[in-house]
Amino acid sequence: MPGLDKGFGGAVAWGDMKIYLDGKFVDPADAKISVFDHGLLYGDGVFEGIRLYGGNVFRLEEHLERLEYSAKAIMLDLPLSRQELSEITCETCRQNGLKDGYIRLVITRGVGDLGLSPWTCPKPSVFVIASKISLYPQEHYDNGLAIVTVPTRRINPAALPPTVKSLNYLNNILGKIEAKQFGALEAIMLNDQGHIAECTADNVFIVHKGEIITPAASQGALKGITRQTVIDIAAELKVPLREVNMTRYDVWCADECFLTGSGAEVVPVVKLDGRVIGYGKPGAITKRVLEYFRRRVLVEGTKI
Ligand code: PXG
Predict the structure, then answer these.
(1) Which pLDDT tens digit goes with each residue over 178-215?
(2) Average pLDDT across the chain, whole number
(3) How far is ligand 1, taken at its centre, from the CA of residue 63, in Å?
(4) Is 165 a known active-site residue?
(5) Beta bridge partners of 211
(6) Is 130 exposed, middle or buried (0-12, 13-18, 19+ CB in 10 A)?
């Protein structure tokens, strides 16, 4: 539905776009992955979604570190060093003439035989797409989002740790579909115990009695780069912050709520499951955090 969703495609004209694929920069029409790639066949691979602000890649080292941890967790040997991945990421931005945008760095298990076995895949496939990003419409930053809790539970960390940013996003996609069925852009997903894990593509924060509170990553959340940035900003602002077990009740009765993600940045939430949060407007601490976040992204980062 137009305007109801954020999308990442399209803004660098197709003809001008260059995609890094396994050692070469190619046109989009030539940026093809085999049907035998286990990334496609089994969602076997890892990725990062990274932002570029004013010619600086935001927290690139942290993204690459998380990528290394994700790869280690699924026993995928990265074919490139951190330095090489960093250079490829920056070069992809340069090749596309970007100063602001969204970077998708993907490493799949590679081409192999049919059958789950990753040992039939001798070489991981690596590709990097850098494009423009369209955010949530400005009105959501001004007025806040109304979100819902969806029935689909976040995957159990004992099955597949949500700390691994894998190519297997079906759990989140089911949450996203349910959010849309309820007319919401984002949704809270609970873990097996009924505690809040995270949203489909964002981490969750509340503010209560002057304190910032977020679910512990052990509750089934990705350790978001934006989440960590907010933790750093809270320390800078000297606002106390706790990582705890959190329920829907805590959000319903919070003074403020906001979500964080590389795509969303810091977006206020004013309603959950039909309950108005606080005064039903983006809260003072949320606005402060967003202001500090927008300032940080311009000064921090790796120059391309
Ligand atoms: N949880 C999940 C499940 C995510 O996928 C976050 C939290 C926030 O993490 P970061 O590191 O971004 O602060 C994410 C991030 C996309 C897209 O293509 C998804 C994310 C980020 C950017 C783009 O839809 N998810």
Answers:
(1) 999 999 999 999 999 999 999 999 999 999 999 999 99
(2) 94
(3) 11
(4) yes
(5) 208
(6) buried
Q: Whose CA is nearest to atom 20 of ligand 1?
A: 201
More confident residue, 166 or 137: 166
Percent of the chain scoring above 90 in pLDDT: 91
- The pLDDT tens digits of the residues spanning 81-134 come to 999 999 999 999 999 999 999 999 999 999 999 999 999 999 999 999 999 877
Angle in degrees, CA 43, 64, 187, rounded to 5:
55
CA of 171 to the centre of ligand 1 (A): 13
Please name every residue paired with 214 in a beta bridge, in sequence order, or none if there are none.
243
Domains in the chain, CATH or no CATH each: 4-131 (3.30.470.10), 138-302 (3.20.10.10)
Which candidate in 72, 99, 165, 281 is catalytic? 165
The beta strand positions in the chain, using DSSP E, are 19-21, 24-26, 45-53, 56-57, 101-108, 125-131, 145-149, 187-190, 196-199, 203-208, 211-215, 241-244, 256-261, 265-272, 275-276, 302-303
